[in-house]
Specification:
Pfam families: AAA_28. The protein is an alpha/beta fold. The protein has one domain: 3-Layer(aba) Sandwich (Rossmann fold), CATH 3.40.50. It has 7 helices and 5 strands, in the order E-H-E-H-H-E-H-H-E-H-E-H. It has a 5-stranded parallel sheet, with helices on both faces. Helix 6 links the parallel strand 4 and strand 5. Helix 1 packs across helix 7.
């Protein structure tokens, strides 16, 4: 089962991997979709939302510890399938590191060891840490409107602890989009020059 959490496409020279990372209702999905369209590539949706929405619709139950591995497996399955279809950029609307952060936050430091292992081993070229200057929107799954600032600090601390390359994404939708495009295009240029 553990191998299902491993990235299958690791040829970094062919595909730039970008992750959107941050608290709930901070604009990850909106900008992910915009960028995938702009770069004419695929985007990996947040499987946790799909899985937990179905669970809520079917039984009005929230996430528990037993859901963590199926969520992680579903996320990596979607990412690995999308990576085979991506052109020069793969846009991920979350990854295993986000699942790890939420797991540890909601379950008093608990996270399955397999998720922790691959959250650290799977590689991405850039993280966009989404700031909380977006309006919090209620839905069936979101439940911490007053803890977004604390969550933002936790997410940023995780990126720093893992020594990951990241940029903070804030401002209006147009500002976020333009900033992200600029950073991705710069990385694509760097990558192209590195393989000449």
């Amino acid at each position: 089962m553990e191998e299902t959490l491993k990235q299958t496409r690791t040829d970094g020279n062919n595909c730039l991997k970008v992750v959107f990372f941050g608290p709930e209702s901070s604009g990850k999905t909106t900008v992910s979709r915009q960028l995938a369209s702009y770069f004419n590539t695929v985007y990996v949706p947040e499987y946790m939302r799909v899985y937990l929405q179905k669970k809520w619709d079917d039984s009005k139950e929230k996430c528990t510890k037993v859901d963590l591995m199926p969520i992680a497996i579903g996320q990596m399955k979607a990412e690995n399938e999308a990576s085979e279809k991506a052109n020069k950029v793969l846009i991920c609307d979350t990854n295993l590191l986000e699942i790890k952060v939420y797991s540890e936050y909601y379950y008093d430091g608990f996270c399955p060891s397999e998720i922790k292992k691959y959250a650290q081993e799977n590689t991405y070229d850039l993280y966009f840490l989404t700031y909380i200057d977006t309006k919090w929107q209620i839905d069936d799954l979101r439940d911490r409107p007053d803890e977004r600032e604390e969550m933002f600090r936790i997410f940023e601390a995780q990126l720093i602890d893992y020594n990951l390359r990241y940029e903070v994404l804030k401002g209006s939708q147009n500002v976020r989009f333009g900033f992200a495009v600029e950073k991705i295009e710069k990385l694509l240029k760097e990558k192209k020059n590195a393989y000449k």
